[in-house]
Specification:
heterodimer, A: 364 residues, mainly alpha, ABC transporter involved in vitamin B12 uptake, BtuC, two-stranded antiparallel sheet, 14 helices, 3% strand, B: 353 residues, 13 helices, 0% strand, globular, transport (chain A), Iron chelate uptake ABC transporter family permease subunit (chain A), transmembrane helix (chain A), ABC_transptr_permease_BtuC (chain A)
Chain lengths: 364, 353
């Protein structure tokens, strides 16, 4: 169900339209099939995350019993307080990142456009790392500072960076090249600030900051699930409706105007949507790298689409993040590495394989 | 540095439109100004430092090293970092032009090809497996990592049915960067001794490098500059699109391979000498393009001194900004250079490749 149709008549007899009131989408069987396949993979990963995640094996029947309200206290704790929040956070954060990447790459028409290159992710990192390093002392961040300070720092930093990028690239309209260049400059600045701040601190705080900057699901709890779920609940429908303008924007600003798209408003709205998704994801799990860049490109290639399909990108992002978290928890068993290490280890070879496999030049 | 070919020698592809006297004058003046600026930056880099030396004294010991304190400061501290700064800046500026043109992407910097992360992985593996801690021991590892990473990226990008295109190069490079970055993160998170070295190495600095480091990387940079010069006419043709370039008799695959080899050599050597310095490879090509227009035979020779000026100016600023302590050149470049770059972008002085 790729909302990719510009409000122009589809080629006769080729694509069927899905209509809901004033809205319409193009029906693409291949995209729908790919989305269902990824959904199935996601479900499998989710079941595995609930049953065989750490060294406390529980059968599917035990987990179902717990979910139905049974099980002993230990089992309830393991499933409801450890595994469920972590799996849900992973899936929701991955979906938010994949969706934001699809929007940004579609609007900027540049496969390198992602929250990392546009400054949002690194802006969030500046906020969080400052809290970790300055608020920590040698004993490490604890109590209220760890619970609320680091995520709050991330949200403030990320929104500030996004506002700076939008504000600085606004000059009677947002041209996407200008936006990208300003975004990369802000991103480089924030990244180097993070590196610099990490050399002020002692090694313990530096390691903690490195873990956070890589993106981690260790500290997942129901509060973070709530943050990510609330953001997705509001922004996913908004993005699916708004992304209908992406295909029109791809025809060039003048053609898009001719098709009735308010170009600057559409671009700004889509970017704002993406920025809010990234901020929510970053507050919940840190700036998990690579998902926002890779998920849309993987989805695009699997679907054979011209621009990243938003819903399929979100599902791909969720599957990628959940899969990476299971590698992160299981591969070096006693040592728990952050999930951000493995999103690239899992996703990069797959993306490279798709690049080699591909026979058709995609537009992005 | 680069043979600034005369316009009459335009190879195959049609020459840049508007090749009037005004354009030629602006390019020549731009080049002269940049070279003058570079000379001024180099002189300032020799004169300015934590230890105040009168200019006459610096000049005297530069001609006749006498083994005194001033001589030691100039010859063992200031001269090496100035020379390394020029080499690194010129290499990164040139590589940036090649990178943005081959990927046809205005935000691609040379690091996108996986070069910087390949070098980082080489360094971290050296610390983790071999227990190295000396700067000069890292150089070979960093160069090897950078070359291996970019060779792999090119092989993957060329694996598709249509050979390496701008999109596949960028995507394969970004994927490889992320993969290698993930491996580096995994190692430094498991081994704190590696993190201790890595968190300082990745800032990018010219300080504390002996002149030997320059001699180690100079052959790579020279080879890279030669390949870049050979690549310039081909890039002008590729700018018209792969299909048109092929129709014009350009061997697209060979041109891409030459460009990627040049990028790998230049960036790998620069990263090995000074750590991953961002921003130069992004900003210098845009500055050069704003002055020279889209002709690569002029962009490349302008981007090299522009990059060198940026690195030296940032290094000098890092020395004076905090009194006794220093701020690393990579930090200064990103933190002070980014607002400057944004101001230029806002004034509309930048054009996309």
């Amino acid at each position: 169900m790729t909302p990719a149709a510009p409000p122009a008549p589809a080629p006769p007899g080729r694509r069927r339209a899905l209509r809901a009131g004033p809205l319409s989408w193009t029906w693409r069987p291949r995209t729908a099939a790919v989305a269902l396949l990824i959904l199935a993979a996601l479900a499998g990963l989710f079941v595995r995350a609930l049953t065989a995640f750490d060294d406390y094996p529980m059968g599917a029947a035990d987990v179902l019993a717990v979910l139905a309200g049974g099980g002993d206290r230990g089992e309830r704790f393991v499933v409801m307080e450890l595994r469920m929040p972590r799996a849900l956070t992973g899936a929701l954060v991955g979906a938010a990142l994949g969706l934001s990447g699809a929007i940004l790459q579609g609007v900027a028409r540049n496969p390198l456009a992602s929250p990392d290159t546009l400054g949002i992710g690194w802006g969030a990192s500046v906020g969080a790392v400052l809290v970790i390093v300055l608020g920590g002392g040698s004993g490490g961040v604890s109590g209220a500072a760890a619970q609320f300070g680091v995520p709050a720092g991330a949200v403030v930093g990320g929104l500030a960076a996004a506002a700076a990028v939008f504000g600085l690239s606004w000059r009677s309209g947002v041209a996407s090249t200008r936006l990208l260049l300003v975004g990369v400059a802000v991103s480089l600045m924030c990244a180097n600030l993070v590196y610099w701040v990490m050399t002020w601190s002692d090694l313990q705080d530096a390691a903690r900051a490195q873990t956070w900057v890589t993106g981690s699901l260790h500290a997942a709890d129901w509060d973070r699930v709530g943050v990510a779920a609330a953001a997705l609940a509001v922004l996913l429908p908004t993005a699916l409706v708004a992304a209908r303008a992406v295909a029109a924007l791809g025809l060039g600003d003048d053609a898009a105007r001719g098709l009735g798209v308010r170009v600057d408003a559409a671009r700004l709205g889509l970017m704002l949507c993406a920025a809010l998704l990234v901020c929510a994801a970053t507050a919940a799990a840190g700036p998990i790298t690579f998902v926002a860049l890779a998920a849309p490109q993987i989805a695009l290639r699997l679907c054979g689409a011209a621009e990243p399909p938003p819903l399929t990108s979100a599902l791909t992002g969720a599957a990628l993040t959940l899969g990476a978290d299971q590698l992160a928890a299981g591969l070096f068993a006693p040592t728990q590495l952050p999930v951000g290490v493995f999103t690239a280890v899992l996703g990069a070879p797959f993306l490279m394989y798709l690049i080699i496999l591909r026979h058709r030049e995609a537009r992005l | 540095m680069m043979p600034s070919a005369s316009p009459a020698r335009a190879a195959g592809p049609p020459s840049t439109p508007g090749f009037g006297a005004a354009v030629r004058a602006r390019r020549t003046i731009g080049l002269a100004v940049l070279v003058g600026l570079l000379a001024a930056c180099a002189a300032a880099s020799l004169l300015i430092g934590a230890r105040a030396l009168p200019p006459g004294e610096v000049w005297r010991v530069l001609g006749t090293p006498d083994g005194g304190e001033a001589s030691a400061v100039v010859w063992s501290l200031r001269l090496p970092r100035t020379a390394i700064g020029i080499a690194v800046g010129a290499a990164l500026g040139t590589a940036g032009v090649l990178m943005q043109s081959h990927t046809r992407n205005p935000i691609a910097d040379p690091g996108v090809l996986g070069v910087a992360h390949g070098a980082a992985l080489g360094v971290v593996l050296g610390v983790f497996l071999l227990g190295l801690t000396e700067v000069s021991a890292f150089v070979w590892l960093a160069v090897a990592g950078a070359l291996a990473a970019s060779a792999a990226v090119f092989a993957i990008a060329a694996g598709g049915s249509r050979g390496p295109t701008p999109v596949t190069l960028v995507l394969a490079g970004a994927a490889m960067s992320a993969l290698l970055g993930g491996l580096v993160s995994a190692i430094v998170l498991m081994d704190h001794a590696s993190l201790e070295v890595y968190r300082f190495w990745r800032l990018g600095t010219l300080a504390g490098r002996p002149l030997d480091v320059l001699w180690q990387v100079l052959p790579f940079i020279a080879a890279g500059l030669a390949l870049a010069a050979a690549n310039a006419p081909g890039l002008n043709a590729l700018a018209l699109g792969d299909d048109v370039a092929t129709a014009l008799g350009q061997r697209v695959r060979l041109t891409r391979a030459t460009g990627v080899a040049a990028i790998a050599l230049l960036t790998g050597a620069a990263t090995a000498a000074a750590g991953p310095i961002a921003f130069v490879g992004l900003a210098a090509p845009h500055l050069a393009r704003a002055v020279a227009g889209p002709d690569h035979r002029w962009m490349l020779p302008l981007a090299a001194p522009a990059g060198a000026c940026l690195v030296l100016a940032a290094d000098i600023a890092g020395r004076v900004v905090r009194g006794s302590g220093e701020v690393e050149v990579g930090i200064v470049l990103a933190v002070l250079g980014a607002p400057f770059f944004i101001a230029l972008v806002r004034r509309g002085r930048m054009i996309a490749p």
